[in-house]
Request: fold
Amino acid sequence: MRRGKTFIISGPSGVGKSTVLHALFADWNDLYFSVSATTRAPRVGEVDGKDYHFIAAEQFRAMIEKDAFLEYAEYVGNFYGTPKKYVDEAMEAGRDVILDIEIQGATQVCEKRPETVRIFIAPPSWEELERRLTARGTDTPEKVQKRLLRAKVEMETAGNYDYFVINDTVENAVSELRAIMCAEHCKPNERMNQIMNQQ
Reply:
């Protein structure tokens, strides 16, 4: 059985990552979405193990000491991180793993596991990104502008990624993601190992 691969999905706020990933998972059963661990308290309706793995700060620090995270960060007084355990279990079961994380986290992961595949999702234009951010209705005009400035900084690092997907439509973006993931499993070493292991 083939071993799964880890794919990082990054992109600016408002680009539509969640919508694209929801559509990707809707018709692909062999994918595993990595659930982050956090020390913050659950919000109403959140389920442990589905939305986050909710753990105590002491346990999180102990996991840091044991190098149990692929990446972690502190944000507004709480820790967030990607536990290795669940990622490794999914990969051993032959499932590809999706990490929806920001650029800083992606850098940490790739320092530990250079074979990780990084995919950057971008908007078709700055005007469209501004339209999407404004249409959400959750941010003030000032906050929208701050998100656009952050998006420009993020775009400057996109050249470090392995693939660049433009989310002009959800269907096109999902099609490209599937093609990338398929191509990554067609590398000579992996295919030759599959043949040799059958002998």
Remarks:
- The chain has a mean pLDDT of 93.
- The helical segments are 17-26, 57-65, 84-92, 103-112, 126-136, 141-156, 170-184, 188-196.
- The chain is about 45% helix and 20% strand.
